Amino acid sequence: MRRTAICAGMTWYLALAIFLASFAAMEAVAWAAHKYVMHGFGWAWHRDHHEPHDRVFEKNDLFALVGAAMSITMFAIGSPLVMGPVVPGLAAWEPGTWIGLGILGYGVVYTLIHDGLVHQRYFRWVPRRGYARRLVQAHKLHHATLGKEGGVSFGFVIARDPVTLKQELKAQRESGIAVLREALEEG
Questions:
Q1: Fewer CB within 10 Å: N-end or C-end of the chain?
Q2: 153, 147, 154, 157: which is closest to 180 by C-alpha?
Q3: What is the mean pLDDT of residues 66-71?
Q4: Rounded distance, CA 45 to CA 103, Å?
Q5: What are all long-range contacts of 79-85, with beta carbons under 8 Å and residues at least 24 apart?
Q6: Selection from 25, 14, 45, 6 nearest residue 105 by Cα
Q7: DSSP strands (E only) in the chain
Q8: Are 63 and 46 in contact (CB under 8 A)?
């Protein structure tokens, strides 16, 4: 059986598996970063994303640069043009390229879903049914809290059932964990 290598020593299906695993892992990374960094010590950058404004850019957009730096770093680690000539004595680690592509791919999908579909920064379309509607509902429920405390739906691509999220928000409000916007408290 002949191995088909797309680079020096990696088969296309291993490269694809690394890309897909990296892409999928980024939802967990994004969820944790959103819950514990953006709604924690990174709130100074994230706050304006939760407040009404008419600016084109938000401080929150700086987090995209963090994601880009992660992807670029992995591309550099996977590049024989960087490793060796720039970092003497170190060889390129080929999976780094595919991990970098997975991070980049997630970033593109995130931007289209979160900034485009949910917040309509690039286009105007309100989904009436299906998973796209569920994504929008879940993220709107994330924005139902005032401040950084409490909240639901910290992921960006995987959206849980909005009915369950509403129940969780109600429980958070009743226990004093979260303060909800008036519109949700009435509904």
A1: N
A2: 147
A3: 97
A4: 21
A5: none
A6: 25
A7: 145-146, 179-180
A8: yes
Q: What is the pLDDT of residues 87-108, one digit of tens each?
A: 777 888 999 999 999 999 999 9
Give CA–CA dist 96/73, Å, rounded: 8
**Contact criterion met (CB below 8 Å) for 107 and 67:** yes
Place of tokens 């009404």: 52
- Specify the DSSP class assigned to residue 88: T
User: What pLDDT is recorded for position 183?
Assistant: 52
Residue whose tokens read 């967990």: 28
Cα–chain center distance at 89: 34
Residue 94 makes CB contacts below 8 A (sequence gap 6+) with: 7, 8, 9, 10, 78
Kindly state the helix (H) or strand (E) to which residue 14 belongs, with its residue range: helix 12-32
- The Cβ of residue 66 has, within 10 Å, a number of other Cβ atoms equal to 12
First to last CA, the chain: 62
Q: Quick one: pLDDT at residue 110?
A: 94
Instruction: Of 61, 25, 24, give the one whose Cα is nearest residue 42.
Output: 61
Q: What percent of the chain is modeled with pLDDT above 70?
A: 92
Give, in degrees to the nearest 5, the angle at Cα 107 between 121 and 45: 65
Separation CA 32–CA 74 (nearest Å) = 20
Nearest to 159 by CA among 119, 102, 118, 101: 118
Q: What is the band of 7 on the pLDDT scale with cuts at 50, 70, 90?
A: low
